[in-house]
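Let us practice reading a record.
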Amino acid sequence: MIVNGWRIYFIKRLFGQQRRDLQVEVRKLKNTLPTEAYRTHSTVKLYRAIMVAIKEKIPLDPFASHFALTGALKHYGRVKKMGLPDRYRLFFRAIQTEEYKAIFVLWLGYPRKQGDKNDCYKVFTKMVERGDFPNSLDALILDSQED
């Protein structure tokens, strides 16, 4: 998928799997719930908010200050709020070269609970420190899938 000149990828084993799981759940809900209950279901709203962030919000300017992280995570961005439930964060990395613009959606983090050992920022930092995400554009592409 290309939006606003940015090619969008999903890291297969993390966000790619989370997205597939959400899609399966949303399809089940669509087949079992009345229309109004389906539209207002929290899982459907979460999936819709994630896809709006990916297709509309991030590609406008993935380096915008409201996405920026600091310290060890300075090469990464995250979406908070913008339609997502309060305790969810969508982590991504944008890489821009003269020839290529790519956004890699890495992981949907939950919960955001400051001070908690399972806080999504702590978990994401550990993922980065472990090397769960390649550093080079080519390696990220190999580890990803397009929509």
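A brief commentary: The first strand starts at residue 2 and ends at 3.
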